[in-house]
Design brief:
Keywords: ATP-binding, Nucleotide-binding, Transport. This is ATP-binding cassette domain-containing protein. Pfam families: ABC_tran. One of its GO terms (molecular function) is ATP binding. The protein is α/β, with parallel strands linked by helices. It has a domain of 98 residues: P-loop containing nucleotide triphosphate hydrolases (Rossmann fold), CATH 3.40.50. It is built from 10 helices and 11 strands. The protein has a 6-stranded mixed beta sheet, sandwiched between helices. It has a 5-stranded antiparallel beta sheet with strand order 2-1-4-5-6. Helix 3 crosses helix 4, helix 3 runs parallel beside helix 5 and helix 5 packs parallel to helix 6. It binds adenosine-5'-triphosphate. The site of adenosine-5'-triphosphate (ATP) has 13 residues, from helix 2.
Length: 286
């Protein structure tokens, strides 16, 4: 897992100044961002996804530069191969489960083709005569048959069998979230961003879906940034934690270590340790 998020951005309230470097953190698979409401967690994820643009800094994920203000690089969101799952599942309401998931593949395949076309254009501009076969063909499901097989596999893995022809309005909240996750995973993202994806679900379903989601993601070795307001979720799912307060990272470390021995005041407040259990956590965290 290889990432650098080192960004600055002026917000309404305070400046966002986030630095998360895998070389310093040596993280496992799931990095939790824990912070009070309005502390800048979502904005950080949006900068990674490319739907918000930092004023300065760099974002490099798995060797690919998404953003670099010095080098004037700002990769379009469609080219970043980021799977972004949030609370409102953003499924297409007029499409069935299968059609929604198919969109995930088609979108990702289109991204791959754009990346290769971009490389080709750059080579031409630089007068390089690169043989055609050097450009990668779209690796994602090259035939329709293969594509439908990929969709069926993910439908089975996410327990959506029998629901393929239903529209989102005919699904429960949990099923909609499973469908949204299937749509992301079928596109083979290089990083997954989870922004409180289960907070609208009841407690039982939340635990079940959390476990399932983490198991699917760890099978595929996809790095995950996970914004949650729940200590329980952070404990259950995260290998590593970043404590964020007013747009600044207060401390990072292994989740277990931070829950046992938080080093900063906000670490103590947000993990509810060391005599600060009296603080009303819910008033601090949405
Ligand atoms: N487009 C924007 N421009 C400037 N400031 C913004 C913008 N969007 C949000 N903000 C501000 O940035 C701050 C951080 O917001 P953000 O949504 O990242 O918080 P959060 O930690 O995810 O909170 P929550 O848990 O409530 O979702 C807030 O104070 C918000 O008002």
């Amino acid at each position: 897992m290889d990432f650098l998020i080192d960004i600055e951005m002026k917000l309404n309230t305070f400046p966002l100044q986030v630095r998360l470097d895998s070389a310093e953190m040596n993280p496992g698979g799931v990095i939790g961002l824990l912070g009070a409401s309005g502390s800048g967690k979502t904005m950080t994820l949006r900068c990674v996804a490319g739907t918000a643009v930092p004023d300065r800094g760099r974002i490099v994920i798995n060797g690919m530069t998404f953003f670099d203000s010095d080098r004037k690089i700002n990769l379009r969101p469609q080219l970043r191969r980021v799977g972004y799952l949030f609370q409102n599942y953003a499924l297409f309401p007029n499409m069935t489960v299968r059609q929604n998931i198919r969109c995930g593949i088609l979108g990702a395949a289109q991204q791959e083709r754009r990346i290769e076309a971009g490389k080709k254009q750059l080579d031409q501009e630089n007068g390089r005569d690169t043989p055609r076969k050097k450009y990668r063909k779209c690796a994602l499901y090259t035939s329709n048959q293969q594509r439908e097989k990929g969709i069926s596999e993910i439908i089975e893995r996410m327990h959506l069998e029998g629901l393929e022809d239903r529209r989102p309005s005919e699904l429960s909240g949990g099923q909609q979230q499973r469908c949204a996750l299937a749509r992301i995973l079928v596109g083979n993202p290089q990083i997954v961003l989870l922004d409180e994806p289960f907070s609208a679900l009841d407690e039982y379903l939340r635990d079940e879906l959390l476990e399932e989601t983490m198991s699917v993601l760890s099978e595929r070795h996809i790095p995950v940034f996970f914004v949650t307001h729940s200590r329980q979720e952070a404990r259950a799912a995260c290998t590593d934690l970043a404590i964020i307060h007013n747009g600044t990272v207060q401390e990072t470390g292994k989740a277990g270590d931070i829950f046992r021995h938080p080093r900063t005041a906000w670490g103590r407040i947000l993990t509810g340790t060391e005599g600060r259990k009296d603080l009303d956590f819910q008033s601090l965290i949405k």
